[in-house]
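Retro notes
What went well: the complex prediction finally ran end to end.
Inputs used:
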Amino acid sequence: MFVASMTAEKPFDFGTTPGKLPKEVVPTEYSIRIIPNIDKLSFTGMEMVKVNVRAPVRQLVLNALELEIASASLDNDPLPKSAIKIDRQNELLTLALPSELAAGEHTLALSFSGKINQQGQGLFYVRYQEQGTAAKKTMLGTQFEATDARRLFPCWDEPSFRARFQLTAVVPENWLAVSNMPVEAETKIDNGKEVRFAMTPLMSSYLNVFVAGELESIETQNSGVQIRVITTKGKSEWGRYALDISAKILQYYNDYFGVPYPLPKLDQIGLPGGVGGAMENWGGITYFEGGLLFDPEKTSDDTKHDIFAVIAHEMAHMWFGDLVTMAWWNNLWLNEGFASWIGTKSTAHFNPQWEVWLRKNKPRNPTRRVGIAKEQAMESDARSTTHPIQQPVVTEAEASSAFDDITYQKGQSFIRMLENFLGEDVFRDGIRRYIAAHKYSNSTTADLWSALSETSGKPVDGIAAAWTEQPGFPIVKVRRDVDGKVSLRQERFTVNFKNPTPLEWKIPLTYFVLGEKPASLLMTNKTDNLENIPPDRTLKINVHGGGNYRVQYDPASWDLLLGSLADLDVQERVNLLSDSWALVQADRAPMSIYLGLINKLPHSTELAQWDQIINVFDFINRLLIGQPEREKFQQYARSILRPVFEELGWEPKSPEAPNVLTLRGSLIAILGDLKDQDVITASRQRFQKYLNDPKSLSPDLRRATIGVVGGYADESTWNKLRELGLKTTNIAEKQNYYDALASARDPKLVQKTLEIALTEELPSSRAVFLVAKVARESEHPDLVWQFARQNMKALLAKIDALEINSYAPSLFTFFSEPARVDELKAYAKTNLPSSSVKEVAKAVDEVAFRSQFKRRLASQIAGWIDHRTARK
Ligand SMILES: [Zn+2]
């Protein structure tokens, strides 16, 4: 059954695009001048905005937030002070006009002032220690997505109001200033210099950028584009890897999209704070520097994967997001799902050995799920708190909370499934057609489907609708009938969800009989059949796990699969592991199905397979904190993982595949958590040696080894780790030490680590994540919540707009006691704004799920282990 309200979305049309701003007045060109005052953490500004009045109006309505408007004039006539109204609640600036304004071209001039923020919202400052010196420095940056350009200058701050922007800024003379376009002129003035940037092409306001400070850069040229990596002083050489891959990726996208990169330059800017992840400002992408810079002497190889993936994602936005922008935030998935998908696709293209489609997605925020991207999204999407990829967005807070794993990862999985179904070349031709048709303009999901339908000749919108406009996803149940007939039946797959609305999908199903070529079937009804499948042959549905659905086999089919595991490649094995773990979560199968599968796996040291298992074991180990069955489980888990680690050994052999380097680190970390005494002792010994001779410990093992040492630290070890963390200015090294502090289990040390979050020791976004990291690692989420509740105001002051609604509720997701549900509800009622409602509901669902799952798992695991021991 399709949801009745599911109506096909319309192609882009400016007049009917959602939003708060009236559509009669459209800005075409902004000239903005900003003068920051670093000492006072404030700025003054002026702007001239050319507007096109499409129908006569009596007032102008645009966005402004936390700005004081000093004066306004229209076509050189000053408006009285009384004509200027600020509506704080709706973030609007209204200018009442003395008489009706005729249609045509007009010019609005405004002067205003505002503040420079501590958190990454609007114009912000970052204080940091300069590389190689003891000097404390300050720099400036901006973060505007989704709705914060209005904090720097009054503007029509909705994505469909595209305009050209020309920025001028006054900065100290020894500063480097960066914006979307190259510098057009620099003029020395009293106390500094005035930097004027070239005018941008037509773009959405949230894509503006301004970064300035004592910065340096390295650069290259590719396809006529100047590419730079910009950092604070002393760090630019660590941008070499980012610079090299940026050039490669630029060429790849120029070809894929069929339109060359449209700006004269592309800057990759590393900031020591203010940005949590990265932001795709057109021509000037900002990154938290840890996600961009790479010091081969001190950073693990694994970091390269992360840098490649984030650069590939952000650069894809230069076309998909910036050149063509979603009309409104309800189509955010189109930007993010697509950039995530092609980011992964291009990363896989250049680095096939990394197995990126199977790799764990490591969220920087420790409260987010860890796992393969597709699995992260499916876990959220199975819950009652899920939402369709395309969801209505009315308020600014709703726009901010749209940035979740459904938007990114389900979006990516669906696009991947669609590409598989339509074929790689046909899909690319559709994307080229879409980009060509909508460049320098906006679009909706419907526009993408129509481009893909035209190139493929298939009804893409009919297939897509159920995936983008309904919540959830299906499970396909497989049953062998007589005479080689296999019957398939779909239903909605849910976890911890009473009475879900039954839904159906058009499923682009793929399958193969072992030893034969893959085939596909578009499953358009609740049931369907596969014919001529020999009853004694292994059948695998969902080739390479490329489809966004679960599969449950009948016992006969499952036994055939278990008997053929050695003949299935790692992608198929990971898919079977993921699906069977999901069946356990959904209470559709007992835990023995998952543990039995592990038992039958062929001998292998493939990272992706062990990643999946380590991730599940880590979840169980944390869920069972305080349970009598935990020790038994730890013993069992060690017995599975220990032999793999022994085969790899502590010392890297050269040459060795990068995936083996990563697996060794993951095994050390999990065995440490599982209280493997040998690994704990060996980690301590290696750490002592490393203190005298840093080269003795490979960069690929440092994170895991130091983490184990931190987990079991006494006070003097804790002090040593902190001293090391304070001393180093290397980003990755610093992160290793502070992560290790966050792992300390001793309650007294937990308190000491938490206190760090209130200091300026870490960049603000890292400081607030430190608290969540302690909640996850220390095994004392209660102490963390107590601390966070007492210091919430100070913590929230450090957090950026995208995380603010979820911060307090997400700290509850480490609990599994039913009483915490009531505590969170009560806390939310008196302390949280109404914009946190969805985040509170998600956390409530998570705690409730964990509490019932804990009981079920504990008894089933104990039963399995006893049974296994008895058989031996
Ligand atoms: Zn993105």
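What we learned: DSSP finds 26 helices and 31 strands in the chain.
What to try next: split runs per interface for comparison.
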